[in-house]
Amino acid sequence: DIAVHLRYLLARQGGVRMIFAAAPSQAEMLEGLVGAAGIDWSRVTAFHMDEYLGLREDAPQRFGLWLKERLFDRAPFGAVHRMDPEGDPVGVGYAARLREGPIDLVCCGIGTNGHLAFNDPPADFDDVEDVKVVRLDAMCRQQQVDDGCFATIDAVPTHALTLTIPRLMRAGRIFCCVPGRLKREAVRRTLEGPIDVECPASVLRRHGACGIYLDRDSAAALRSDG
Question: What pLDDT digit, counting tens, does each position of 89-103 carry?
Answer without folding.
Answer: 999 999 999 999 999
